[in-house]
Amino acid sequence: MTSEPPAIDRKVADLVQPGRVHRRVYSDAALFELEIERIFARAWCYVGHESQVPEAGSFIRASIARRQLVVVRQENGDIAVLHNRCGHRGALVVAERCGRVRRFRCPYHAWTFRTNGRLQSVPCMEGYDETGFDTGDPALGMAPVARVGTYRGFIFASLAATGPDLDEFLGPTKGAIDNMLDRAPGGRLEVAGGCFRVRQRNNWKIYLENMHDGLHPMIVHQPSIDPARDGTKQQPAPIGDSAFALSVIAANGQTYESMAELPVRNSPFGHTEMAAFRANPATDPQFRAYREELVALHGAEHTDHILSDNRLSTMFYPSASVQATSLQMRVIIPEAVDRTLIEIWSLRLVGAPRNLFQRTIVLANTAHSPSSLIKHDDFAIYARVQQGLATEGIEWIDCRRGTNDPSTSMSEAYIRNQFQAWRDYMGATTAP
Amino acid sequence: MTETDDVASFLYKEAELLDSGEYDAWLALFTHDARYWVPSYPEQTDPLCEVSLFYEDRALMHARIGRLRHPRALGVPVRTSRLIGNVRLTGHDADGTLIVRSRFQMIEFIDDEQRLHGGGITHHLVPADDTWKIRLKRVDLVNAGGIFDLLQVFF
Fold first, then answer.
1. How many degrees, rounded to 5, is the angle at CA B65 between CA B59 and CA B70?
2. What interface predicted TM-score (ipTM) does this complex get?
3. Which residue from A227, A361, A379 is facing B48, i.e. has the nearest CB?
4. pTM reported for the whole predicted model
């Protein structure tokens, strides 16, 4: 005899239907709490890159499903992801965003922890006489999360002990990481150039559901496309970095017809890969020298294949999206039903000329800074969608666009793919 | 009038042009090779290999102004009111460029919400006729390195 699923599960199953989604999926705080536990606490979430923890004891802070975590390199080279919390009074052990330690030390009562999270020492131990207190008790340590996996330097963690392994989870989206590494003459990537942290006034899904939308750019971004196009016509003509920045902004002005030719490919677990238009700047002398280095590594034919593999963005649902060609990693950190923190990190191709990385920085400034001319209109739209979906009266929104042709950026197939994953994560009737 | 008084008047005029939305007149205060820079963290020295909150030359400043005036731009107009103080002349470059430090507080009203910004400003001023042109305006926000809402207008 099967038991009746709890009421909230029946509700969840009903809220996402073929071609339509109930507004409460974006505006109900109780559902958001369930998403945290069932999606973010179950999926593999991106927590950082190995280059950010280069030596034993190097750490960065991270967050999954609102748990405060610390990613730390071990003596043996492994990477641990620990709960950033002291077993004594519960204080956050590490407040710095990154650093290097021999051991972690809680600033409250000086409990110390090994970099593997185990409790090392406690002052005034005699206070625990006859209590059975044992420093070897894992429950007193900074507990490691259930699973940590890396794919070619990219660190993911899962709070769930069971589920697909990282390789199966990433599936074809690994191609985006492979392509970035193929383009690095040194065969490595590193996180470099700092980070933007920007807060959105919208549900996390509204951001993800805009990621591969080829219909909105020429509408929403007209206020930046027009002045960018005007700017490229100014005399004297903008050169160098600003010409590139203006071209990035103006590139949003593609026609519907060209967006309908931009390939988008969906895969299991809610992931999506979207191609890019922009070709690499093959005329630049530094770029030609860089290409020659790749040719020495890969041969001419394979190098041209690597460099022509233009990828606008690849979604690792639900926690991150990488822009492989422009070398940006966007990390999605849900804070509340209507509040989402986004971190944007730049990646450097080790061994590539300096001017290529400067382009990456110009792109980050142009497309992802809090001052980005592109983002102003995006974020305003996300906030409007949030406001509209918080309004009762009309209960459903439609996501049927492009049902016949799900393979281009003019289709909402990627939204339907995200909701397929959403249902799979949310629909389970047992708590994680 | 001391030189400090003259420079302070120049900075007040610049602030007033921004608060009143007279962006063309404001942009005309800058040299052709000028940069407007808001570093992403305190003490940042490299705007080329590290991200910045703003790092704009005249072409990009012009584009920002174009967007702020665009009839379909969302979340505009942004109203601002700023106070400039602690104006200090801190030195001259070898080429006669005057380096000026000041402090500012700016109230921004956007989407029915009032926000407060503040920090230090460094101007590099080049003598031009009987006034100056701005070659560099660097704004070090007190919350640089923090979490940001969108920043649409110049500080």
1. 125
2. 0.96
3. A361
4. 0.95
